[in-house]
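One chain is below:
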Amino acid sequence: MKKLTLLALMIVNLTTIIACHTSETTSSTTEKTTATTYTTLSKRFINALRNDENVQPIIDSLANVEVDILANELTNDNRKKAFWINVYNGFIQVLLSENPDLYQDRNDFFRGKRMTIAGKLLSFDDIEHGIIRRSKIKLSLGLLSKWNVSDFEKQFRTEKTDERVHFALNCGAKSCPAVAAYDASQLDEQMDKSTEIHLDATSRYDEAKNTIYVTSLFSWFRGDFGNKKKVRNFLKKYELLHQNARGTSIAYETYDWTLYLDNFIDL
């Protein structure tokens, strides 16, 4: 009888040890899973839109996530850019698909507080110029920064402006870059690819005039791209100008603001 009791106690103790170990493993796995919950969710947002799926649960999750949880995940610029680019592009598709008339007054459309992220009502301008472009004044050509910045913006804005975001953000116009699902772990490669694709599609060289015509984005955000030498180097990097090109003038194409949705691309 004593042997049976001892055996029973050993089984109970072994069961407890296994249960504790399982609990610890599950907890650890949960922590690793939640580390990318919302960056992954933002990517799913784009893919769900592309596949005509119901995105309301995703919109609700983005609206209701606690600020601290989101901040603890968006801990570097790649995560921040991937998340906010996907959110921006996703809501452009949602809102303009539901109500295309909003695009008739574009200034009001981009300024208006139209989406809730982590309990904060935001505009497209808040996301693009405040968070992604690190508190730049919208109409300053990228040359001036805002002096009155909200705590939310300070918490989530990037550490450094990345000029390639202009070839990733889609504002709903025909001249905008295509929409892709950005992944923080592959962001640099994806943004290089999206930049290459958009520049190739929107640029042309006039040999007779020795002039390259490029998107107006280079003019509107010249502070992000830098001086003319840096713009030339940028164009050379993406093989729009030869490395030894000299004397080539840069001109800007007219931007086509025709509403153009469902323009998705794989990177």
Observations:
- Residues 212 and 250 are 5 Å apart (CA to CA).
- The chain has one domain: 37-252.
- The chain has twelve helices and five strands.
- The radius of gyration is 24 Å.
